Amino acid sequence: MPLRFTLRQLEYFVAVGEAGSIAKAAEQVNVSPPSISASIAQLETEFGVQLFVRKHSHGLSLTAGGRVFLKEAARLLNDADALHDVAGDIAEKVRGPLAVGCLLTFAQIVLPALRMKFERAYPDVRVRQFERNQGQLLEMLQRGEIDLALTYDLELSQDMTFEPLILVPAYVMLPAGHRFAGKASITTEELADEPMVLLDLPFSREYFLSAFHQRGIRPNIAERTGDIAVMRTMVANGFGYGIANMRPLNTLAPDGKPLVFVPLDGDLRPLTMGVALPNSEHRTQTVQAFIDHCRHFVVEQGVFGAGRAVEHQSIG
């Protein structure tokens, strides 16, 4: 039977069991309380047992089953610590499993070629990939289901580190022949009455709409879709304009119709594409090798057109 829990989840559970409070445990392990709550809930669901009795005024108390579970979880974590000597040898090599998440809006452009080049350079690494929206990627990072995520700097929590790779400004996506297609840039005021095809994904949606809201403009949302390929095709077929931060080298929609990308003029901040990962005192050579590989790849391949590389500086 495949394991559906992680050592990190057990670590959070033991911390709460010993502290008697999620807030105190969060301070001890330097993780946000919601992340700890989610981990405990997942353990209870996975094993079908109630580990704590929740008391609003007195925090949490272990159930009888929870006390037995705490003892065994602590023993398992101690046994895992014994693997450090073995891991010390492995960590000096780029090898082993690596779970990589990628924002689905640009996964099709970036991930396949990036992964193939990485695996050719490091054949002893076994990569698993997951394409998800921003909300799902952040949840997977917090639950320890992926090692890192290629994504934007949107709504990252304090218990995450972000390695910036490239700065990507927003563009207005238009069908060929649109009256704005020949402009050097387009303002949100000019777009106010135009029909919009909104990329309707968590956090991305709010980011794009903020370009209008911060200027007191209500966009004319004619269509919504959660699929970037569908949005490009709808724009190319005249349903409206779209806004995106990626400007691929191939400006054709999936159905072969041409698109035009014009810079969005205004106060909307450019997004930074990078690698998000949980805060950790120890970073394996495999993870670091993948981050370094990403940094070289996005610049050399020019996957975001006019994107500008960001100087190496971890955030978090």
TrEMBL record:
Residues 5-63 form the HTH lysR-type domain. CDD domains: PBP2_PAO1_like. Signal peptide: none annotated. InterPro entries: LysR_HTH_N, LysR_subst-bd, WH-like_DNA-bd_sf, WH_DNA-bd_sf. The keyword Transcription regulation applies. One of its GO terms (molecular function) is DNA binding. Keywords: DNA-binding, Transcription, Transcription regulation. Gene3D superfamilies: Periplasmic binding protein-like II, Winged helix-like DNA-binding domain superfamily/Winged helix DNA-binding domain. One of its GO terms (cellular component) is protein-DNA complex. PANTHER family: HCA OPERON TRANSCRIPTIONAL ACTIVATOR HCAR, TRANSCRIPTIONAL DUAL REGULATOR HCAR-RELATED. Belongs to the LysR transcriptional regulatory family. This is LysR family transcriptional regulator. The lineage of its organism: Bacteria, Pseudomonadati, Pseudomonadota, Alphaproteobacteria, Hyphomicrobiales.
